[in-house]
Amino acid sequence: xxxxxxxxxxxxxxxxxxxxxxxxxxxxxxxxxxxxxxxxxxxxxxxxxxxxxxxxxxxxxxxxxxxxxxxxxxxxxxxxxxxxxxxxxxxxxxxxxxxxxxxxxxxxxxxxxxxxxxxxxxxxxxxxxxxxxxxxxxxxxxxxxxxxxxxxxxxxxxxxxxxxxxxxxxxxxxxxxxxxxxxxxxxxxxxxxxxxxxxxxxxxxxxxxxxxxxxxxxxxxxxxxxxxxxxxxxxxxxxxxxxxxxxxxxxxxxxxxxxxxxxxxxxxxxxxxxxxxxxxxxxxxxxxxxxxxxxxxxxxxxxxxxxxxxxxxxxxxxxxxxxxxxxxxxxxxxxxxxxxxxxxxxxxxxxxxxxxxxxxxxxxxxxxxxxxxxxxxxxxxxxxxxxxxxxxxxxxxxxxxxxxxxxxxxxxxxxxxxxxxxxxxxxxxxxxxxxxxxxx
Length: 440
Ligand SMILES: [Zn+2]
Description:
By secondary structure, this protein is of the alpha+beta class. 45% of the residues lie in helices and 21% in strands.
């Protein structure tokens, strides 16, 4: 009989039974155990057996069950009894180890339901195998704690998810299933050396700030500048929309089409765009006023001096609340009033969450690639792909070698690659590169 199983310690004892979708093999251990696991004595005798169902890798797309006659032995010397040990089995899950490996791999690109159906175990088991796998990977890849941490959210599979970034190294530090305050607190608490975090950038979302103040009281909060200046553009756009009774339908449509000219920075416009801008603004004085407020608001940030920035803002604020556009800019003024300190902390190091935009497009591409991903699979696929990690080896240290190699060979401990390498997390540019090549 040809052995279709190729397992190192099990063999089929008769031809398999087979139907449309499944195969069942009767199997037993190839060799009896040599010694007692308790005392090492080599005289053992059989002491009962039981039937056990073990799932294995499919063969020719048919799911495979192994009906194992598992034997128990008793030691003649110490009288201890034990079940035979089989290295190809995962005892916890009643599956072969190779099936577990296959489930881990398949869960990265198939839904749990699909995997469960393919291999003949239930969905919950697939989910648990995947969970164990992720927990293992979490321990294996401990990313270096960022000095400057970015907190943001990104829509992944229809929900906003928490994304933590390393601003200095331009890497993704972690992704979590939601962005609740409790989740942020929990995740930040898990960082042992969190005292190392100096700055935390975020948008104006109170739960983030509360979480950071709770867990990282020493860290300075910086509101991401782009979230602030974006509000100036939104205010300007609402003024444009409110102009409709002052314009013909045709003018409205044209301005709608050309609104990007208003939203771009003036110094980025070409000659034609500048001409169009002047035409619009000279005909619509209210729009002109709002436009100037927008440009001046952006200008606040264009100084290296923190004090100058604050002065520019207070002057701008006065002009704004005296203008006809004050209603449109009301949300912006309130936001800056509420987050004043955090917004102007920007001037310390000029930190922003600028990379979040690129993560956004990355995630969209990843999502498109594999419909039916679970969030956990998507997260694991991004975070635990070693090819995407940004690493740096520490400086060459010759004294470590002389000690370890020549003087201390007896006590030398194993130095693994993970020990000697700083791993900063998932590198944005590598991730983008791989996605563009379809190589993820
Ligand atoms: Zn024994």
